[in-house]
Amino acid sequence: MTTNATAPAPVRGPDRDDGSRSAIRRPRATPARRTSVFLSTHPRMRLALLLSAPLFWLGLVYVVALAALLVTAFWSVDSFTGQIRTEWTIDNIVTVLTGSLYQTVTLRTIGVALLVTIIDVALALPIAFYMAKVASPRARRLLVIAVLMPLWASYLVKAYAWRSVLSQDGILEWLVSPFGLSTPGYGLPATIITLSYLWLPYVILPIYAGLERVPDSLLEASADLGGKTWPTVRHVVLPLAAPAIIAGTIFSFSLSLGDYITVNIVGGANQMLGNLVYTNVGAANNLPLAAAIALIPIAIIFGYLALVRRTGALDNL
Amino acid sequence: MRLSRLSRTMLGAVAGLILVLVYVPLLVVLVNSFSTSTSLSWPPPGFTLEWWRRAFASAGAMEAVQTSVVVALISTAIALVLGTLISFALQRFDFFGRQTVNLLVILPIALPGIITGIALNNFFRTIMGIPLSIWTVVIAHATFCIVTVFNNVIARLRRTGTKLEEASADLGAGVWTTFRLVTFPQLRSALLAGGLLAFALSFDEIIVTTFTAGSGVTTLPIFILNNMFRPSQAPIVAVIAVVLVLVSIIPIYLAQRLSGDEQQRR
Question: Shortest CB distance from B121 goes to which of A63, A222, A281?
Answer without folding.
Answer: A281
